[in-house]
Amino acid sequence: MDLQRAAANPLIRPQDVRPTRPDMDVIGVFNPAATRFGDETLLLLRVAEAVRDVPDRELAVPMVDCRGDEAVLRIERIRRDTPHLDLSDTRMIRLRDRLLLTSLSHLRLARSRDGVTFTIDETPALYPRDRAEEYGLEDPRITRIDETYFITYTAVSRWGIAVGLASTTDFVTYQRHGLIFGPENKDVVLFPARMGERFFALHRPAVIGLGELQIWLASSPDLYHWGRHTPLLSRRRGYWDALRIGAGDVPVRTDDGWLTLYHGVNAEHGYCLGAALLDVQHPSRLLARSAEPVMIPEAEYECRGFFDHVVFTCGSVLDDAGMLHIYYGAADACTCRASVPVADVLATLERPRRNFSAA
Q1: Mean pLDDT throughout 8-23?
Q2: Is-cis flag, bond preceding 49, omega within 30?
Q3: pTM of the entire structure?
Q4: Residue 32: CB partners within 8 Å, gap ≥ 6?
C-alpha cells in the first residue's frame, strides 16, 4: 500500500494555536474533522488546554460552569498527596469514585488552500456551553448533507460521555441541536447521504459488564432521533483491533461501496487505523475489512507525545485523482496528514470470514 506521510508533518502543533486565556496553555491539537469548503480544506481541530503555572504540589483541573448560554471557566485544585489519587493515565485523574480530565477541549477551525499549510482561527468555533459539555468538546466529525455541514462531537461531563450535534452553512455561525446520543457513547459518524427515507450513523456505545465493544449502525428520519440500532463491527482476537474499536472518518462512496476508516487497538501497536467496506444501499451489510492495519504508529511524533503510540482519524478528504488524504491526531499532541490511493486501500480488504468474529 502506497501510504505517504506528509513531509511537513506535524502540520499543526500546540505552539501554533493561540490559547483562549493567558492563564491556559495549549497542550494538544489533534483528532480534527476534515472537509472541503469552496476551494479550501477545513479542519475542525480538537484543542486541549491545561492550566498554566501549576505548583508542583498541586493538580489543576479546568472545567466550565454553564449558566444558560454563558460558560465560565472554573479551575479545581487537588493536592498531589491526596489519598486514593490515581495518575497512571496522563489524560485523567481518578479520585475515589470521581473521574476528572487534566485538560479542557474545544473545537477550533483551520483553513488551507493546499491541504498542508493551515491558518488557524484565533478563537474557538465551538466552546463548551452546556452542562453536558462541562469537561469539554472532543473528536468532531463533519458531514456535508446537501448544503449543510453537520458536526458531531463528543460531549464530556460528570454525567458521562455523550454525543452532540451542531450545523453550519458558512463555518462562521453555528447552530447547536443538543445531544443525539446519550451516555455512554462516542465516535458518532454521519453518512453523507440519505439511503431510502433514512439517514445513517456509526456509533460506539460503551459496554460495562456483559457484552463486547463494537461499532454499531443506527438510522434516523431527521438526523435528531435515532433508532434501529444494530451491531456492525466487532473486535477480533489476534488482530490489530483486538482490544478496542471505534469509527473514524466520514464514509466515502466508491464504486465498491462505502469505504470508512476506523481505529483499533492492540497491545503490540497501540492505536492503529484500518478500513471497512459497507454496502452502498444497505450499510448494515459488511462487505470487506482490513486484515492488516492501513496505518500504525511509526513516526516519532506518533509514538511519543501526550499519549504514546496513537494514530487516530476523525476526517479525510478525497481528491479528484482518487487520493484519500487522511488527517489524524498523532500521540494526542499534534495534527498530521497521510495520503493513500483509495484503490490501494480497497485492494487490501478481505471478505469477512468466520474467524473474524468478536473475541
Answers
A1: 97
A2: no
A3: 0.94
A4: 43, 44, 45, 46, 110, 140, 314, 315, 327, 329, 335
pLDDT of residue 157: 94
pLDDT tens column, 55-87: 999 999 999 998 777 789 999 999 999 998 998
What does pLDDT average to over the chain?
94
> What is the per-residue pLDDT across 94-113, written as a single tens digit (0 to 9) for each?
988 888 999 999 999 999 99
Torsions phi, psi of 133, nearest 5?
-120, 15
Query: Domains in the chain, ordered, with CATH?
Result: 4-356 (2.115.10.20)
Query: Which amino acid is it at 90?
Result: T
